[in-house]
Amino acid sequence: MDEVTQEFIAGNEAAMRLAVALLLGALIGIERGWVARGQRSGERIAGIRTHALVGLLGGIAALLADAVTEWAFPLLFLAVAGMAVVAYRARMPESHDFSITGLVGLLLTFCFGAIAVAIDLALAAACAVVTAVILDNKREIHGLLNQLQAHEMDAGLKLLLISVVMLPLLPDRGMGPGEVLNPYEIWWMVVLIASISFVGHFAMRLGGAEKGILFTSLFAGLSSSTALTLHFSRLSRQHGQLSPLLAAGILIACGTMFPRILIYCLVINPDLLPRLLLPVSVMGVLLYVPALVIWRAHRQDTKVDRPERHSNPLELRIALLFGVLLAVIMLLGQWLKEWLGEAGIYLLAATSGVADVDAITLSLTRMSHATIDLHTAVLGIVIAAAVNNVIKAGMAAAVGNPGLGRRVAVPMAGSLLVGLGLAWGL
């Protein structure tokens, strides 16, 4: 390829990138112009034309910085910022608008133009689209912020603390007896549990009580099906006519535990998934199908409030306790395996399943990498899930009315027997 051809291609590429810079500016300008569409011509500080030209100017600044002087970009950026500040300052007494969002959007437009020319087109386009979406959803964002409660803000910050701050600081190597304790992996599992609980909490908040028992139960299964079982069982004593729907809700929440187990397996050890998929899926289906049959047969217009959440699921103390529990189960698993072999793992799974399925699931999934074989891990996870659902069925029978207990116990028993049979035969 001769020199003339190379220069021609380079020139066309630069022209294309400048065109993209112009279009990205126009994109943000369209949104800004739409917001200010009620103002007369000349009253808007920056609309579609200004933003398009600022995007183009950012691209030209990047070219000048590369071909003429490195000072071209910062000087032009300061010039745009200065003109924007003067314009917004002059407009402020008349509009009584002290927001600097429009100013920041204009400066970002300049930067996106430079990124499109000098760095990466896809990155610049993605940033511009995200910026336009944020600018366009002012009312929705402010509405969500107004609905946010203090303990939810605290939960979000704590989730960031245990994930963004603490996780990278932990050593990623095996420690302790048999090197079964990896601080990084244990804490990563804590973050995984906390994140799912966090998502489940806000899914229930955004869905609202008007969505009824079905919607509430589905998302409660992401965080605390045990809490929902207790709440619905007590509710059945107060509102007997709701027992069929409440039983369906409990079965749905308990069934949601099984997709959650598959997600853990997929993330931590995908090699375990083919063996675990059949028994876990069947156990979930054997709870979902009766739940939907009961729901369709007894569907009513009556709705109940979602389960109350008196405590924050992301308190750091709870996360630490889960980490300790996870470490203890892994140590016990190693010890019981050396002492009793596979029987020790199954005993540990049954004992752990009384209170919690997540910890033993995560422990066995991680141990299946090297410490135990895949069959033992699958059977142990199924045993833990079965025992956990037996406990919840007992809770429904003891706390709820007789009708609730019967409707919950029969599908639970079927799910348990079939799941254990499939896991044993794999």
From TrEMBL:
Q: Which domain of life is it from?
A: Bacteria
**Pfam families reported in the protein's UniProt record:** DUF4010 (PF13194), MgtC (PF02308)
Q: Where are the transmembrane segments?
A: 14-34, 46-65, 71-90, 102-135, 155-174, 186-206, 212-233, 245-270, 276-295, 316-337, 343-365, 377-398, 404-424
In its keyword annotation, does this UniProt entry include tRNA-binding? no
Domain DUF4010: residue ranges: 191-400
Q: Where is the MgtC/SapB/SrpB/YhiD N-terminal domain?
A: 18-142
Record's keyword terms, sorted = Membrane, Transmembrane, Transmembrane helix
Q: Is Transmembrane one of the keywords?
A: yes
Q: What is this protein called?
A: MgtC/SapB family protein
Please tell me the species this chain comes from.
Answer: Halomonas nitroreducens
